[in-house]
Amino acid sequence: MYEPRGTPPERVAVNIPRAVGRNRAVAPVAPATHLRHVLTRIPPPTARRLSARSAHLLD
To answer: DSSP H helical segments within the chain, as ranges?
Structure first.
């Protein structure tokens, strides 16, 4: 499930207890998922501009 994105299951397994301990519903693991999570919390027009500018960094 996590291999196609390059995140090893061990890294995900380390983050799950941390997220549960902090009562977090979302636990991004990879740097790209952290960025996507942050982008969902900012206004849509700003998110679109940032996403368009940073798309080449995530590929």
So the answer is: 9-21, 31-39, 44-58
